Write the structure tokens for this entry.
Amino acid sequence: MNAELLPRLLEFAMLFCFGFSWPFAIAKTFRAKRVDGKSPAFEIIVIIGYLFGIASHLISDRSWVVWVYLIDIALVSTDLVLYFRYSMKSVGRQGETGGAA
């Protein structure tokens, strides 16, 4: 196997494993319309980490793996948007009920 291909395949496998869980998290949030236990700070840190991975490839080798990073960023960003959407609705509901959930 090509010595340059193996590290990219391993990186792809890592990104695939990380990215594989996000559609399930997105679906759960979308169905439940609740964000209990979610951390927007964590998701933002994950996105920043992915951006550093992209920067590494753009500086060094412009690898095809960048596309996998972009897909993962899109998934995490979707979950982050749902977080803010449903957390705002949750705040609105608490105001209507006098703070009781």
In short: Residues 5-26+37-89 form one domain. The chain has a mean pLDDT of 88. The two ends are 57 Å apart (CA to CA). The first helix runs from residue 5 to 32.
